[in-house]
Amino acid sequence: MNKKEIRVRFAPSPTGPLHIGGVRTALYNYLFAKKNNGKFILRIEDTDQTRFVAGAEKYIMESLKWCGIKIDEGINEGGEFGPYKQSERKDIYFQYAQDLIKSGNAYYAFDTPEELEKIRKEYESTKKTFTYDSFVRKTLKNSISLPENEVKKLIDSGVNYVIRFKIPENQELILNDIIRGEIKVNTSTLDDKVLFKSDGMPTYHLANIVDDFLMKISHVIRGEEWLPSLPLHVLLYKAFGWEEKMPEFAHLPLLLKPDGNGKLSKRDGDKLGFPVFPLQWKSPSGEVSSGYRESDYFPEAFINMLVLLGWNPGTEQEIFSLEQLSESFSLERVGKSGSKFDPEKAKWFNHQYLINKSDKELAEMFQPVLIEKHLNFDLNYIEKVCSLIKDRATFINELWEHSYFFFESPKEYDNKVVKKRWKENSPEILNKIIDILNNIKDFNRKNCHSEVISYLEKNEIGLGAALNALRLTLVGSGKGPDLFSIIELLGKEEVVLRINFAIKTLN
Ligand code: GLU
After folding, report:
1. Mean pLDDT across the chain, nearest whole number?
2. Which of 24, 28, 45, 232 best tests ligand 1's pocket when mutated (most atoms within 8 Å of CB)?
């Protein structure tokens, strides 16, 4: 049997920045395509002109690029099923809406927004909710309730109308979702959704189904918020006679706030203390929301963190490259329940990626920070610094606070440490240490360590006090990695200079 070609699409509406939940949807689509040698398509669903936000489309594409998600077909990439932006496919949809009218699956509705509002209010006053459905459609102003000649007259006169889907009455629908299994719905619970609007644009539902069909989409993988639309979508496939070619559906569980109370939403912005957007977003009114990129996350770490919010590999493994994910991902291992976003775990992932980078890579990322501070050091030296301190950093922008003393000698000293560690006899001991260090020919960690320690032990000088004072002279405080590694890296000359300067300054 010829296996069906796998084609999936990510279909965002450019109504604002992409939220991390949206990035996860894109990622799962992408991974599913890669895993199955399929195609990943980016389709821009911009038929709701009232919600259009300038810059959003560019933002979406830049986000995917930053994440390493490559698009096979899309507005920039092209492809044989284009155009990939719905506003450029406008003419296609009207014809399909007409087809549904002809087959009796849709109808013209002439009710004005004001008329509908009035009826809605009347319903509310008797504590009922109004839905435009199979029960009330006969009483409203549409091509089902009105005689044919009147309908024609209205259309010819140029009045505004919409086209609504005619939901079949009282049918048991059985829907299938890869993640949720079988779902039963009675069509009488559904309303006659608008398919085509009076502004000449299709609604999301019509455009989405027509495009998924025309673009030969094999699997629709999208957020759980679209599950309530699934019955209508399946009915549309049936009405068009496309049931055989209907894609399979997978509705992804929600991303929840860290406390598990409700969905992580765009509006959470920076309120919860972490970004909800991949990249920083500046709204047209100038409001800025932070992004993972600008917060110094590695895209690989961001993706790795995100993929595990909903999918699990079935093993203990946590660190996955995009390539590994493309091999391992499957929809069968996506859970039904929502995943709590954990900002600490996000940092943990970044730390893992940081310590797994080679010292050379880290040095290359760190060097520009130093150059900006007018500190010119060769890469080899920066590499050695990175190897000593990388365990302590979560982000590249933290390397400096853990390593500045390798690049600048201390000009002042941490008062608390001075009080605690600087004793009356410190200068005497340190002067002796200078002599010892000066006499070491092969100036390395091991030799410095054994010479200094054996001197202190022989003379029964407390190691703690002496070594802490020594650290204070080199670092300016009580922190930093292994003392003798610092000594080796700074080199004899610099170490002696620093000790002498400290003796002068602290006495
Ligand atoms: N345009 C919809 C959105 O913004 C797409 C939903 C779907 O994937 O069907 O999420």
Report:
1. 96
2. 45
How far is Cα of residue 125 from the mean position of the Cα atoms in its chain? 44
- Please determine, for residue 271, whether its predicted confidence score (pLDDT) is greater than 90: no
- For 21-40, letters b (16+ CB in 10 Å) and e give bbbbbbbbbbbbbbbbebbb
Structure tokens at 454: 């054996």
Which atom from ligand 1 is nearest to the alpha carbon of 13? 4
Sign of CA dihedral 227, 231, 234, 240: negative
Ligand 1 proximity of 7 Cβ (cutoff 6 Å): no
**Choice from 8, 59, 208 to test ligand 1 binding pocket (greatest atom count within 8 A of CB):** 208
Region 227-254 average pLDDT: 98
pLDDT tens digits, 281-301: 999 999 999 999 999 999 999
Can you read off the two tokens belonging to residue 365? 């990322």
Taking the C-alpha atoms of 244, 248, 249 and 252 in order, what is their torsion angle to the nearest 10 degrees?
180
**Helix, strand, coil percent content, the chain, rounded in steps of 5:** 50, 10, 40
- DSSP state, 146? S
Q: Which two tokens stand for residue 265?
A: 């939403």
Query: What per-residue confidence (pLDDT) applies to 1?
Result: 45
CA atoms within a 13 Å half-sphere pointing along the CA-CB vector of 408: 14
Query: Edge to edge, what strands does the sheet with 162-165 contain?
Result: 106-109, 162-165, 194-196
d(CA 156, CA 159): 8
Dist CA 75 CA 286 (whole Å): 27
Residues recognised as catalytic? 266
Is the omega angle on the peptide bond into residue 83 within 30 degrees of 0, that is, cis? yes
pLDDT in tens, 42-101: 999 999 988 999 999 999 999 999 999 999 999 999 999 999 999 999 999 999 999 999
The pLDDT tens digits of the residues spanning 414-472 come to 999 999 999 999 999 999 999 999 999 999 999 999 999 999 999 999 999 999 999 99
Residue nearest atom 5 in ligand 1 by C-alpha distance = 11
Q: Which of 67, 226, 53 is nearest to 42 (CA)?
A: 67
d(Cα 353, Cα 320) in Å, to the nearest integer?
Answer: 10
